[in-house]
Amino acid sequence: MTVKLSNVSKRYGKDFSLKNVSLAFETGKIYGLLGPNGSGKSTTLKLIAGLVYPNGGKVEVDNEEVTRKICRKVAYLTELDMFYPSFTVGEMVEFYVSQFADFDPKKAEQLLQEMKLDPGKKIKQLSKGNRGRLKLVLALSRKSQVLLLDEPFSGLDPMVRDSIVKSLLSYINFDEQTVIIATHEIDEIEPLLDEAIVIFYGDIIGQKNVETLREEEGLSVLEWFKSTAAQMEGKK
Which of 48, 49, 101, 140 has CB 3.0 to 4.6 Å from 76, enough for a Cys bridge? Predict the structure, then answer.
């Protein structure tokens, strides 16, 4: 198992973001971490990326307990804009080259062309959609063991999202990478997913193999998610 959470709890003040969660993510699969806003999706990714630490339990990547140093193995696309606005697109790529030994500048150049991003343009001049594209370029250009994408399609128009979803598979090395996507854009990412996990206000309430879900239960991921979340809402 590449990524493992063992009895992990995380709270902010008195409020729990995760409650005694255990999960395992295997190499060569794309996982969808699904749930409403505030359910703990982003916290889970931040724990794996070493940006926050659990109050209880253990988080491991490749049998190594997670600390800030795990960034050498984990590429993390945050939902937030984390850029130097005075940089150009090309300077941001050069910054990533200087920070991450696994960053592939040739792959970044190819992705910039495919995403129609001008390397000479200032980041502060980019639209929200183009900043979203740049975040994807920077994350996908790393040859990391783990790729974490937090709301990767936020701010992108439907046509752009569709083209990125279709091409995303060609950017992933399934022999070496584990991919975890946290999103509420379930329709868009369903064609990518091997496993779907529903997190509901700090609890894991369901996990399904997507192919099995379709073939044996006749449900789309979105239909299963709505049904699973509705059952929990009824119990609240």
Answer: 49
Range of the domain at 109: 83-143
* Amino acid at site 4: K
Are 204 and 90 contained in the same domain?
A: no
pLDDT tens digits, residue range 57-66?
999 999 999 9
Are 93 and 64 in a shared domain?
Answer: no
The bridge status of strand 178-183 relative to strand 146-150 is parallel
The verdict on 125 and 152 lying in the same domain is no
Cα separation, 79 vs 152, in Å, equals: 7
- Residue 100 tokens, joined: 């991450």
pTM more than 0.85: yes
Span 112-121, pLDDT tens digits: 998 889 999 9
Same domain, 53 and 124: no
Q: Which ranges of the chain does DSSP label H, i.e. alpha helix?
A: 41-49, 89-99, 105-114, 128-140, 158-171, 186-189, 210-217, 221-235
CB 74 within 8 Å of CB 102: no
- pLDDT of 46 reads 96
